[in-house]
Design brief:
Elements (H helix, E strand, L loop, with lengths): L8 H9 L18 H7 L16 H9 L11 E6 L2 H10 L4 H5 L2 E8 L1 H9 L10 H24 L3 E5 L6 H8 L5 E10 L15 H4 L10 H16 L9 H8 L12 H7 L6
Antiparallel strand pairs: 1-2, 2-4, 3-4
Length: about 280
């Protein structure tokens, strides 16, 4: 059951698009197939304030079952996850990830891994060559598998009333994360996922997304309206941010600043080097 009061589909669309619904969708319309799954998905918000209340017993196992229900490329299942609940370890990982307090605060941190070690070990045990492991596409499959699994967990957790937020900043200092989690060669941390009960005193809001006309292309790619869509979205985000930060903080300014130079990547400009150190080749 969703942890939110049951909102109308129109109110969720309005929150997700900042009063700019997709073309051909009227806010006063009712989609006849709207259901609790769509409600959970459209209600997503990144929670960065958690209660210290631990999760109920067996929650982790159910969440991993949801993760393993995600699609897997060629059924290779080249992902795994480290569940971190120890306060001291979470604090160390939070420091490595730009001192993000929610990593330390959430009762559960899941670190999702592109895990190519399992098949390397299997190949060694069966004395079978696996030269195909050394190519970029293989690592990409592993990272995508981890991502699909994690998103299943996020949706499952939110359907149970928990809050979630991803922690991509664990890639800022990947070598240190690898040491902290004792990861073997051929395993790489892709991101973290914080899970816990949202703090009702510091509620998270649904963040508007780009208009659908900026991301939805029919039949062939077309960017004829992209810049106008971005201008409209910048206005939407300025209004969204004005409630708690500088109204001049638009999406385009923030995005371009994040990508301005190598230093803007906060250490992730070294990611290829860190991946290669793990014995993962990218031919």
């Amino acid at each position: 059951m969703s942890h939110h009061s049951t909102p109308a589909p129109a109110s969720l669309l309005e929150a997700r698009y900042g009063k700019q619904p997709p073309l051909n969708v009227a806010l006063n319309a009712t989609f006849p197939a709207f259901n609790p799954t769509l409600e959970t998905l459209l209600s997503h918000r990144s929670v960065r304030a958690f209660l210290e209340t631990p999760l109920p017993p067996e929650t982790l196992e159910w969440l991993i079952a949801a993760a393993q229900s995600a699609p897997s490329s060629c059924n290779l299942q080249m992902w795994s996850v480290v569940a971190v609940e120890n306060r001291e370890r979470k604090a160390r990982l939070a420091d490595l990830a730009g001192k993000q307090r929610h990593i330390k605060q959430a009762p559960l941190l899941l670190v999702f891994l592109a895990d190519m070690a399992m098949l390397h070990e299997t190949a060694a045990a069966q004395k079978t060559p696996v030269d195909g492991m050394d190519y970029l596409d293989t690592f990409l499959m592993a990272a995508i598998d981890a991502t699909l699994a994690a998103q299943n967990v996020a949706t499952a957790a939110e359907s149970l009333g928990f809050g979630t937020v991803y922690a991509g900043a664990l890639r800022n200092q990947p070598e240190e994360v690898i040491r902290e989690l004792n990861l073997p060669p051929h395993v790489f941390p892709v991101f973290g996922l914080c899970i816990g009960y949202p703090d009702p005193e510091r509620p998270a809001q649904i963040k508007p997304r780009l208009p659908q006309r900026a991301v939805l292309h029919r039949e062939q790619y077309s960017n004829s309206d992209t810049q106008q869509a971005i201008a409209d979205y910048d206005a939407t985000m300025a209004a969204f941010y004005s409630s708690y930060r500088d109204a001049d903080a638009t999406w385009s300014k923030q995005s371009l600043a994040r990508l301005r130079e190598a230093e803007s990547l906060a250490g992730r400009d070294r990611l290829r080097e860190a991946i290669l150190k793990q014995g993962i080749l990218l031919r």
